[in-house]
Amino acid sequence: MREEKILEKELQNLKEVTIRFAGDSGDGMQLTGSQFSDTTALFGNDLGTLPDYPAEIRAPAGTLYGVSGFQVHFSSADIYTPGDTPDVLVAMNPAALKINIKDLKLGGTIIVNTDSFDSKNLGLAKYESNPLEDEALLSNYKVYPVAITTLNATALKDSPLSNKDINRCKNFFALGLMYWIFNRPIEPTVKWIYEKFGKKQDIAEANEKALKTGYYYGETTETFTTRYSVEPASLPKGVYRNIAGNEAIALGFVAASIKSGLPLFLGSYPITPATDILQYLSSYKNFGVKTFQAEDEIAGITSAIGASYGGSLAITTTSGPGMALKTEAMGLAVMTELPLVIINIQRGGPSTGLPTKTEQADLFQAIYGRNGEAPIPVIAASTPSDCFFTALEAAKIALKYMTPVILLSDGYIANGSEPWRIPDPDSIPEIPVSYRTEAEGFFPYLRDENLSRPWAVPGTPGLEHRIGGLEKANITGNVSYDPDNHEFMVRLRAAKVQKIQQDVPDLAISHEQEGELLVLGWGGTYGAITEAVMKARAEGHKVSQAHLKHLFPFPKNLSDVLNSFKNVLIPELNLGQLAKVLRSELLIDTISLTKIKGLPFKSSEIQNKIVEILGGNNGN
Amino acid sequence: MREEKILEKELQNLKEVTIRFAGDSGDGMQLTGSQFSDTTALFGNDLGTLPDYPAEIRAPAGTLYGVSGFQVHFSSADIYTPGDTPDVLVAMNPAALKINIKDLKLGGTIIVNTDSFDSKNLGLAKYESNPLEDEALLSNYKVYPVAITTLNATALKDSPLSNKDINRCKNFFALGLMYWIFNRPIEPTVKWIYEKFGKKQDIAEANEKALKTGYYYGETTETFTTRYSVEPASLPKGVYRNIAGNEAIALGFVAASIKSGLPLFLGSYPITPATDILQYLSSYKNFGVKTFQAEDEIAGITSAIGASYGGSLAITTTSGPGMALKTEAMGLAVMTELPLVIINIQRGGPSTGLPTKTEQADLFQAIYGRNGEAPIPVIAASTPSDCFFTALEAAKIALKYMTPVILLSDGYIANGSEPWRIPDPDSIPEIPVSYRTEAEGFFPYLRDENLSRPWAVPGTPGLEHRIGGLEKANITGNVSYDPDNHEFMVRLRAAKVQKIQQDVPDLAISHEQEGELLVLGWGGTYGAITEAVMKARAEGHKVSQAHLKHLFPFPKNLSDVLNSFKNVLIPELNLGQLAKVLRSELLIDTISLTKIKGLPFKSSEIQNKIVEILGGNNGN
Amino acid sequence: METKVETKIDTNEIKYTSKDFASDQDVRWCPGCGDYSVLAQVQRTFPDIGIKKENMVWISGIGCSSRFPYYMNTYGFHTIHGRATAIATGLKLSRPDLSVWVATGDGDLLSIGGNHFIHTCRKNVDLKLLLFNNKIYGLTKGQYSPTSEKGKVTKTSPYGSVDYPFNPPLLALGSEATFIARSLDRDPKHLQEMIKRAAEHKGTAFLEIYQNCNIFNDGAFEPLTDKNTKADNVVVMTHDKPLIFGKNNEKGIKLDGFRPVIVDLNDPNNSINDLWIHDEFDSSPVRASILSHFTDMPGMPTPIGIFRQITKPTYNEGLTSQIEHVTEKKGKGTLKSLLYSPGTWEVN
Amino acid sequence: METKVETKIDTNEIKYTSKDFASDQDVRWCPGCGDYSVLAQVQRTFPDIGIKKENMVWISGIGCSSRFPYYMNTYGFHTIHGRATAIATGLKLSRPDLSVWVATGDGDLLSIGGNHFIHTCRKNVDLKLLLFNNKIYGLTKGQYSPTSEKGKVTKTSPYGSVDYPFNPPLLALGSEATFIARSLDRDPKHLQEMIKRAAEHKGTAFLEIYQNCNIFNDGAFEPLTDKNTKADNVVVMTHDKPLIFGKNNEKGIKLDGFRPVIVDLNDPNNSINDLWIHDEFDSSPVRASILSHFTDMPGMPTPIGIFRQITKPTYNEGLTSQIEHVTEKKGKGTLKSLLYSPGTWEVN
Ligand SMILES: Cc1ncc(C[n+]2csc(CCOP(=O)(O)OP(=O)(O)O)c2C)c(N)n1
Ligand SMILES: Cc1ncc(C[n+]2csc(CCOP(=O)(O)OP(=O)(O)O)c2C)c(N)n1
Ligand code: SF4
Ligand code: SF4
Ligand SMILES: [Mg+2]
Ligand SMILES: [Mg+2]
Question: Which among A51, A518, C130, C348 counts the fewest CB atoms within 10 Å?
Answer without folding.
Answer: C348
